[in-house]
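Lab meeting, item 3. Inverse folding demo.
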């Protein structure tokens, strides 16, 4: 009897617990109004710590904001992983909110979502967020926030009136809109990567302590100069969105750094990339550390070519091949290279260069590979190797246009580096450029006489090996192909009395003339971004100009007879000093500030 009584009491207690739990759960669920689409439109609870029910997909619908200006003391909010969007004004004005847990399922945080949440001092955004709206965290007194890596833009007023001390802009961000960080009095450091290309008005207005960290020549630096904000140059990592702040680039007066790969001429060359700045001519070669001018090493001799890899400089001096590092200095690799013509580049750790050989008393071009690790060489004999051969390394591919013995057009080949065989891609090619992605662009003609046939701009995909025609016109309307980048394909057209820079929009396929000038050359930088040209009037007043993809702008007043090489924030060239027997004076110019910061190198033109 007693045993049955105990079992009955236990069962009664369990029923009461289940009933009370069911009532509590029902009451909690009744605190939320959720429509049939999973949108939370209203909250009727008592505040405190809130756990939004699982199954909610969107918080707020734009018209109804469930927690907006709540008079309740909402302290903590836990959002379930079923939510993808936090809509407009969802938590706006919740002044007691100190913590919110946002799951990885959330992709968008809309306008004013947490605006006015003054007690929200900790904001943890998941990596899944791709969009943050206008004023989303305006007036939140957070001191630290890590932005998600997939953001493409920072909206207007997003983090204005906060207590942020430091902010790192993710690498994929392209645009920062006006007053995004307005009135952040404690903000001291903003790290802006080079991908940011648009910055609108008053982004850092009333941020009196702020310093911008970015790359030389970037939009960030130009913005800092325009708005009078201190700027410190830093080196960004290749694969990381974040960099170390102690990797600072010294000020322009201390550096000669541009990462230039194509700064060469028949009388000498200047290469600035990776860890080296290299300047050479027939008298010798000079090596500098890429960031600090002054760590210098030089050699005397007739240098006919040089190239830079991430680990070393390779150069040909007095007919011998050398390598150089600041640790090991010069090292002889190969002797008797008198037939050397020019470096092509490196593929798979091997150096490729052009060389001359004689076949049936006729000089022809051949390619040679040299492995610095093993010392092994390999020769590649070319089809149509006679005459002037135009060659190019694109990614892990080697292309050449064979045998230009006159102005006529010649075939385009791709060289198989394993078998040594050449595969013909086109019969009548003229010029080619690589866009640093997966495409080789080149000009082709319908017949061997380009004056009588149309020019066709073609695009060759390095991976699929497919070729497509993308534009067709007369050569006299376009000129020679010189560069392809995100702004389009650029041509330089020489006529009897002027030179024109033209751009083909690769989306609309419209061709426009950007600029025309007498006796000038539009020189692309070695990163495929900007064009530069120097112009002098009849009174000898000269100016340097830049075209950045949108417009032409004045850089500085300086006389340049030849532009030798251009990088992200420096330009090298020389003028001819006729008062000193036509000596060449090498100039290094900072391209984002009107100043000349190195002028003491000279070499004799003879």
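The presenter then showed the designed sequence:
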């Amino acid at each position: 009897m007693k045993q049955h009584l105990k079992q009955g009491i236990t069962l009664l207690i369990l029923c009461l617990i289940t009933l009370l739990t069911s009532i509590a759960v029902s009451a909690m669920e009744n605190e939320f109004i959720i429509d049939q689409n999973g949108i939370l439109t209203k909250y009727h609870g008592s505040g405190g710590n809130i756990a939004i029910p699982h199954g909610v997909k969107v918080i707020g619908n734009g018209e109804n904001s469930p927690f907006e200006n709540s008079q309740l003391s909402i302290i903590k909010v836990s959002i379930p992983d079923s939510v993808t969007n936090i809509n407009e004004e969802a938590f706006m004005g919740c002044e007691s909110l100190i913590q919110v847990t946002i799951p990885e399922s959330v992709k968008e945080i809309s306008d004013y979502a947490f605006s006015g949440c003054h007690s929200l001092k900790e904001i943890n955004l998941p990596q899944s967020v791709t969009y943050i709206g206008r004023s989303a965290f305006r007036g939140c007194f957070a001191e630290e926030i890590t932005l998600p890596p997939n953001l493409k833009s920072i909206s207007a007023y997003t983090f204005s009136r906060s207590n942020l001390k430091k902010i790192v802009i993710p690498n994929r961000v392209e645009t920062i809109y006006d007053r995004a960080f307005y009135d952040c009095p404690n903000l001291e450091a903003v790290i802006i990567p080079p991908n940011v290309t648009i910055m609108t008005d008053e982004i850092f207005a009333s941020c009196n302590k702020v310093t911008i960290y970015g790359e030389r020549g970037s939009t960030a630096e130009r913005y800092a100069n325009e708005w009078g904000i201190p700027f410190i140059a830093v080196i960004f990592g290749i694969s990381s969105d974040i960099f170390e702040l102690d990797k600072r680039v010294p000020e322009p007066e201390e550096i000669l750094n541009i990462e230039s790969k194509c700064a060469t001429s028949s009388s000498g060359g200047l290469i600035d990339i990776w860890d080296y700045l290299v300047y050479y001519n027939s008298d010798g070669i000079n090596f500098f550390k890429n960031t600090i001018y002054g760590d210098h090493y030089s050699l005397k001799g007739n240098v006919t070519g040089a190239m830079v890899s991430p680990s070393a400089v390779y150069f040909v001096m007095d007919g011998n091949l050398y390598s150089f590092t600041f640790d090991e200095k010069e090292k002889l690799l190969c002797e008797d290279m008198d037939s050397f013509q020019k470096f092509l580049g490196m593929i798979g750790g091997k150096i490729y260069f052009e060389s001359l050989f004689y076949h049936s008393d006729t000089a022809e071009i051949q390619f040679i590979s040299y492995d610095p690790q093993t010392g092994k060489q390999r020769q590649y004999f070319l089809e149509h190797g006679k005459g002037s051969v135009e060659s190019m390394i694109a990614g892990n591919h080697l292309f050449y246009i064979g045998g230009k013995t006159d102005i006529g057009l010649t075939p385009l080949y791709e060289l198989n580096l394993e078998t040594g065989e050449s595969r013909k891609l086109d019969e009548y090619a003229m010029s080619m450029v690589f866009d640093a992605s997966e495409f080789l662009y080149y000009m082709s003609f319908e017949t061997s006489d380009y004056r009588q046939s149309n020019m066709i701009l073609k695009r060759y995909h390095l991976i699929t090996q497919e070729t497509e025609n993308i534009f067709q016109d007369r050569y006299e309307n376009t000129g020679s192909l010189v560069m392809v980048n995100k702004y389009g394909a650029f041509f330089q057209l020489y006529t009897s009395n002027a030179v024109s820079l033209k751009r083909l929009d690769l989306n609309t396929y419209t061709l426009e003339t950007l600029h025309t000038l007498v006796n000038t050359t539009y020189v692309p930088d070695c990163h495929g971004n900007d064009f530069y040209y120097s112009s002098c009037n009849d009174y000898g007043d000269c100016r340097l100009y830049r075209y950045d993809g949108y417009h032409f702008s004045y850089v500085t007043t300086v006389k340049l007879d030849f532009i030798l090489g251009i990088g992200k924030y420096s330009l090298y060239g020389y003028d001819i000093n006729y008062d000193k027997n036509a000596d060449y004076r090498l100039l290094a110019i900072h391209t984002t500030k009107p100043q000349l910061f190195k002028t003491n190198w000279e070499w004799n033109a003879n």
